[in-house]
């Protein structure tokens, strides 16, 4: 019998004009052929990869805010980010963080990630142009970690490189569900894990879908975090394929309003100080003066370091690393020595180079010389267990000292911001003239 | 001379239909020569032949056929050539031809009349839109009042064809009214001649598209509907069928005008479904399927978040008819034919009824369930196979539409019964439908997206697998459905990761599918295809744990592909089968490449096979000679992306096939896919693609200037320019003078295109997107190079294009995103040089603000980026 079309066949005509048959609806067949699926998926992948290539071209290189050679006006622009990492001998011009990280395994990978974290200096003085060149945000209290999603799994690592959580998430390639692009392409976020609401608060973005944001300014990275995160459902409440919620920490311009919003505005998380980011700074591993942390008793429960019992000791404590030559140094690069131990004492106390030691500091033995701290006498208070990997930085010791004696107050920051805004106004006047 | 010639023509036309090949060939040669030497004379003698009642029927029919082919062709390009050729003919010759054709409508020979009416319609299709032949419709309508029924019949037929060829806008409402009056009168029961009534009914089918105004007038619509409904009661089966075909067409064209007629139509269709000839009953069911289609579309639009509204309201006809409609459809399910599952082309009452039931379920959802379940429960255990099959089919049909909450308890009860029926039922039909129903259960009630408690659990999954793998050894049609069920079972576990209950059986599943594909009877019922497609889906849902098993599959599939290449001399039929098999194998490799190439743990091991795979793909291309294999091309694209810059070593050999693919105008899908692969290569090879770019660009530019290439390939070609520029950077310099003018003229066209319909607007937006992606890639490619100065002359035009798009207000979000990105790229690459231009541009500020406040995060992202780039360019 002649097959009739399910869709209306037009009135049959003579043999000369075969009627146009619309395709019959499949009977007992899946409606979409696997071949069509392969074709469609190839087209989709291609267009996603084109978008990636395009985005990479836009985000990489010297494009944003670095002065253009042909631009005579470059001098009027805000100063380009000082290339601090060049001075310090690090060289993460690793264009593709993802591919480097992908090759590492086990402890190497752990160490690698430990080195990637960007550590703020402690703010002991308000930097110049605070209002013009800086962002501010309220820092959530919690565990600082690097969150990496790739290959269908998300892993968060603490500052020392050990794993905090291994979980599925709605970040790109963060769960087996919805893998897209090469499954191995990494996304790396700088987060603080906030226990009370089990949320990862994103403070920075280092890599997204395999392309590096190293060479991008903080300003660009923050806008990128905001826009990219909304592309995923990582901000949704937890579900089977999304164990923890991710949330972006609101970032403000460091103006009076911004500072007030960060300092006194309500947040869904417990605050632990304020974070300041220089807008023009590129991401940089290690301690950097282009990111600053500041605290007082209003915006942090942890202003002054406590001892192992959670008590504020009567004397300031510092943690320093013992070097081969007996010097006791900070975690800065290059390290700053606060004193030394003699060989006999080292052997007697069974200490080794690399050990982290806690010392108490007598107030009267501290001297401040050109913004640098000198300590006359260190009293060994104990050896630290191995879970801690880093000594204190110079700025932290200084901040702790200041906190006990002459803290930098919020009023001082407000004053700094206000003086800044006057500067901006005066520039405006000049330009109009 | 003319007489001599036409004498010759008769003989030649008869010879051209001779059984003797050499005579036929000679005659065809002569006709071709005649046509080439003297086209007007040729067409004139063919029309004389057709009009001459003294001539044999066979020569007249062929004369008409050649005439028709001289006026129209399927292929768009050829078609417009023929249109132009006809319009350019001497008007005296055309008038003579038309007079002869009209004269033929009165011929006593039916086939001559019918042929002539089709040729007249073709000429009308060319001339009426050009406002030529204005007297045609009038002279046809005057024929209607002739007494001879054969003239009346031929005239109605001509009017029908004319409505098919000419678009409604080209005909005045006054003439439309006259045509409809003539046609509907011809359909009336008072028309004594059934040939005339049939011709009129078929003509109405084509004329319905002209009746918009008339259907809005209650009196005229009532009249037309009454006549159509009466015609469904004609004693002639052909008239009844044609009348139901009209009802089907009305149901989709005038859905919103049907409310007052639905009760009558239900009665008419129910009577036809229960008692009329199958050809009539099928159309009666089709009416309800068509109403379902309409309501599904409308309800879809209701729930869509963008419009949340529909131009046409839903009248819920199906919901209202449900209590009577469902029992009627269930009855049809019992009218299966023996072996219908073995016949690819089969279409009968049971199949149409079941399909309609499935549509009803999608239209009304939960409400269908209580009406169908008693039928299922009553029949599923009956000794007669028809009852068991009908019950199973009914159950399978309602699995899409109703909520999972409603269905899950029923499926939980049915699952074990189905599994046992699939193995034990003595009847192949029942097993076929059972396996299909299981597949529908897995498709709609299984998978991580489902909110309810899972129907498929780790516990019953093992049993299901055992049954399906066993059933894959059954007769081909049953085995094919079992593969299909496994496909959906696997699909539901795509997200399950290492927890997938399939993991422990992974090796067995793959083994069984390979064995199935090797069955000697795997060519029947599409079994081999189903086995490979299922294998693909299983590969797609493999995990880190099962990836090593997929890795082992590579040499197996490669060996199969190798074997297809070793075969000796093949017949055409065998060659086609081999090509199909190669397609399946390349498709499978493509899926494996995508899967393993994306997994860090297997990528290295998998790339060990790259050389061998590439060698096989090249050989597959080589044995097709003229064209390249689409599937192999897709697989190569995936391989290039996985291999990255290492793919460069294959380029020398692969290049010729790449070029061949780009030249394939006929199979435009192949061309489109090859263009996509060029993009893959650009991203994989980056500047290593440079040596091949001259050839590729030449071919792409040729493609763009060709009239023959399907238009859907053009947008991806523009995007491909961007891919190339991004890969080779400033080396794109030498192509600028060719590519930029093409982009500019395409941009001008697409900016000012007035889209007549949704489809055209869609295409226009694709085209704009392609052009913008090209600009984006070119601008970014030159970033940081001193040669970016070369782009300055093009910048004003790009900005004008963006202005035009913004002013046009008909961009979709994806064009908006790309467009605002191009504005950013312009600023980013040209820096301070672009600043003044952007400041001058009339709408860039407004456009940027609009995008910055867009609800679409991708548009907003692009805009945020553009804002930063522009701020720098403007302030710098």
Which radius of gyration of chain A do the C-alpha atoms yield? 28 Å
CA-based shape of chain B: globular
Give me the count of strands of chain B.
0
The major pleated sheet of chain B works out as: none
Q: What structural category characterises the helix and strand content of chain B? A: mainly alpha
**Number of structurally distinct domains of chain A:** 2
Report the mean per-residue pLDDT of chain A as an integer: 73
Q: Report the top-level CATH class of the largest domain in chain A.
A: Alpha Beta
* CATH topology grouping of the largest domain in chain A: D-amino Acid Aminotransferase, Chain A, domain 1
Mean pLDDT over the residues of chain B: 91
The run of helices and strands of chain A is HHHHEHEEEEEEEHEEHEEEEEHEEEEHH
**Spatial shape of chain A:** globular
N- to C-terminal separation of chain B? 84 Å
* Main pleated sheet of chain A: 7 strands, mixed
């Amino acid at each position: 019998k002649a097959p009739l079309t399910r869709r209306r066949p037009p009135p049959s005509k003579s043999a000369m004009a075969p009627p146009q048959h619309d395709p019959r609806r499949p009977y007992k067949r899946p409606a979409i052929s696997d071949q069509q699926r392969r074709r469609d998926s190839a087209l989709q992948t291609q267009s996603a990869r084109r978008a990636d290539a395009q985005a990479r071209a836009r985000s990489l290189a010297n494009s944003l805010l670095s002065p253009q050679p042909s631009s005579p006006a470059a001098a009027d622009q805000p100063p380009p980010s000082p290339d601090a990492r060049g001075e310090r001998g690090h060289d993460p011009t690793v264009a593709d963080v993802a591919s480097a990280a992908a090759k590492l395994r086990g402890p190497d990978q752990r160490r690698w990630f430990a080195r990637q974290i960007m550590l703020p200096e402690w703010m002991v003085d308000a930097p110049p142009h605070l209002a013009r060149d800086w962002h501010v945000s309220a820092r959530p209290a919690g565990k600082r970690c690097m969150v990496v999603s790739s290959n269908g799994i998300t892993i968060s690592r603490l500052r020392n490189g050990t794993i905090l959580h291994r979980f599925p998430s709605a970040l790109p390639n963060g769960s087996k569900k919805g893998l897209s692009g090469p499954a191995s392409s990494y996304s790396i976020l700088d987060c603080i894990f906030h226990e009370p609401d089990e949320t990862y608060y994103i403070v920075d973005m280092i890599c997204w879908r395999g392309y590096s944001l190293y060479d991008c300014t903080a300003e660009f990275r923050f806008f990128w975090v905001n826009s990219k995160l909304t592309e995923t459902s990582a901000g949704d409440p937890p579900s089977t394929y999304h164990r923890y919620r991710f949330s972006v920490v609101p970032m403000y311009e460091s103006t009076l309003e911004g500072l007030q919003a960060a300092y006194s505005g309500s947040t869904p998380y417990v605050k632990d100080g304020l974070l300041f980011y220089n807008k023009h700074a590129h991401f940089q591993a290690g301690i950097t003066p282009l990111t600053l942390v500041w605290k007082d008793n209003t915006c942090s429960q942890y202003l002054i370091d406590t001892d192992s019992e959670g008590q504020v000791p009567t004397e300031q404590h510092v943690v320093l690393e013992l070097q081969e030559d007996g010097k006791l140094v900070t975690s800065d690069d290059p390290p700053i020595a606060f004193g030394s131990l003699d060989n006999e004492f080292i052997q007697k106390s069974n200490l080794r180079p690399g050990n982290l030691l806690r010392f108490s500091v007598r107030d009267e033995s501290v001297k401040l010389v050109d913004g640098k701290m000198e300590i006359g006498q260190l009293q060994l208070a104990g050896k630290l267990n191995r879970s801690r990997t880093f000594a204190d930085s110079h700025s932290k010791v200084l901040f702790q000292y200041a906190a006990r004696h002459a803290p930098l107050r919020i009023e001082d920051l407000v004053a700094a911001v206000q003086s800044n805004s006057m500067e901006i106004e005066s520039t405006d006047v000049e330009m109009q003239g | 001379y003319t007489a001599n010639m036409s004498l010759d023509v008769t003989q030649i036309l008869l010879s051209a239909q001779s059984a003797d090949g050499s005579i036929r060939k000679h005659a065809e040669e002569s006709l071709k020569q005649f046509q080439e030497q003297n086209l007007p004379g040729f067409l004139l003698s063919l029309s004389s032949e057709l009009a001459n009642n003294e001539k044999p029927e066979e020569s007249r029919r062929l004369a008409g056929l050649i005439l028709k082919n001289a006026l129209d062709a399927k292929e768009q390009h050829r078609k417009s050539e023929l249109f132009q050729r006809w319009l350019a003919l001497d008007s005296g010759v055309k008038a003579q031809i038309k007079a002869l054709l009209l004269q033929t409508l009165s011929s006593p020979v039916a086939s001559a009349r019918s042929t002539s009416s089709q040729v007249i319609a073709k000429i009308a299709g060319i001339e009426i839109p050009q406002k030529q032949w204005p007297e045609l419709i009038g002279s046809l309508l005057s024929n209607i009042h002739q007494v001879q029924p054969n003239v009346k019949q031929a005239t109605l037929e001509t009017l029908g064809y004319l409505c098919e060829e000419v678009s409604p806008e080209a005909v005045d409402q006054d003439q439309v009214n006259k045509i409809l009056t003539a046609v509907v009168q011809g359909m009336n029961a008072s028309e004594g001649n059934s040939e005339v009534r049939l011709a009129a009914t078929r003509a109405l089918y084509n004329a319905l598209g002209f009746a918009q105004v008339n259907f809005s007038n209650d009196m005229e619509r009532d009249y037309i509907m009454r006549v159509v409904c009466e015609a469904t009661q004609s004693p002639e089966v052909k008239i009844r069928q044609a009348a139901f075909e009209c009802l089907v067409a009305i149901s989709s064209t005038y859905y919103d005008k049907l409310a007052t007629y639905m009760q009558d139509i239900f009665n008419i269709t129910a009577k036809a479904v229960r008692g009329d000839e199958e050809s009539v009953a099928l159309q009666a069911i089709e009416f309800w399927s068509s109403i379902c289609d309409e309501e599904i579309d409308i309800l879809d639009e209701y729930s869509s978040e963008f419009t949340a509204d529909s131009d046409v309201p839903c009248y819920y006809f199906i919901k209202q008819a449900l209590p009577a409609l469902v029992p009627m459809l269930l009855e049809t399910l019992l009218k299966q034919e023996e072996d219908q599952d073995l016949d690819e082309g089969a279409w009968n009452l049971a199949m149409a009824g079941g399909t309609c039931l499935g549509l009803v379920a999608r239209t009304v959802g939960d409400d269908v369930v209580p009406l169908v379940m008693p039928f299922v429960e009553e029949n599923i255990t009956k000794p007669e196979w028809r009852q068991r099959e009908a019950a199973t089919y009914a159950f399978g049909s309602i699995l899409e539409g109703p909520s999972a909450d409603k269905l899950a308890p029923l499926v939980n009860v049915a699952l074990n019964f189905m599994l046992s029926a699939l193995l034990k039922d003595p009847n192949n039909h029942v097993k076929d439908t059972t396996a299909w129903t299981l597949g529908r259960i897995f498709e709609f009630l299984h998978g991580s997206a489902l909110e309810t408690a899972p129907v498929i659990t780790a516990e019953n999954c093992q049993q299901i697998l055992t049954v399906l793998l066993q059933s894959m050894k059954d007769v081909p049609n049953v085995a094919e459905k079992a593969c299909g069920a496994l496909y959906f079972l696997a699909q539901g576990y795509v997200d399950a990761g290492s927890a997938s209950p399939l993991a422990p059986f992974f090796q067995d599943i793959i083994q069984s599918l390979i064995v199935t594909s090797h069955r000697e009877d795997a060519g029947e019922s599409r079994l081999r295809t189903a086995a490979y497609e299922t294998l693909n889906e299983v590969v797609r849902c493999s995990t880190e744990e099962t990836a090593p098993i997929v890795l082992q599959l590579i040499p197996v599939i490669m060996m199969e592909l190798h074997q297809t290449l070793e075969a000796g001399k093949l017949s055409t039929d065998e060659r086609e089968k081999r090509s199909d098999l190669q397609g399946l194998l390349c498709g499978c490799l493509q899926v494996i490449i995508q899967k393993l190439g994306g997994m860090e743990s297997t990528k290295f091991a998998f790339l060990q096979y790259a050389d061998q795979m590439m060698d096989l793909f090249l050989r597959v291309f080589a044995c097709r000679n003229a064209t390249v294999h689409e599937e192999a091309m897709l697989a190569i694209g995936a391989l290039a992306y996985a291999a990255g810059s290492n793919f460069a070593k294959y380029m020398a050999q692969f290049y010729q096939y790449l070029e061949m693919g780009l030249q394939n105008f006929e199979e435009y899908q192949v061309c489109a896919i090859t263009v996509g692969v060029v993009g893959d290569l650009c991203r994989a090879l980056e500047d290593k693609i440079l040596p091949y770019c001259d050839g590729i660009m030449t071919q792409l530019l040729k493609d763009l200037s060709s009239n023959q290439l399907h238009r859907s390939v053009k947008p991806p070609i523009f995007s491909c320019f961007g891919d190339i520029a991004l890969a080779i950077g400033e080396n794109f310099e030498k192509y600028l003078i060719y590519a930029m003018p093409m982009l500019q003229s395409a941009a001008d066209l697409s900016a000012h295109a007035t889209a007549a319909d949704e489809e055209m607007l869609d295409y226009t937006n694709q085209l704009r997107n392609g052009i913008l992606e090209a600009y984006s890639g070119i601008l970014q490619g030159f970033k940081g190079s001193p040669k970016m100065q070369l782009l300055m002359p093009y910048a004003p035009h790009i900005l004008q294009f963006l202005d035009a798009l913004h002013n046009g207000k008909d961009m979709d979000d994806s064009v908006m995103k790309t467009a605002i990105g191009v504005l950013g790229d312009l600023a980013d690459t040209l820096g301070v040089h672009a600043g003044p231009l952007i400041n001058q541009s009339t709408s860039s500020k407004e456009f940027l603000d609009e995008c910055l406040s867009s609800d679409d995060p991708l548009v907003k992202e692009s805009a945020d980026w553009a804002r930063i780039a522009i701020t720098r360019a403007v302030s710098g």
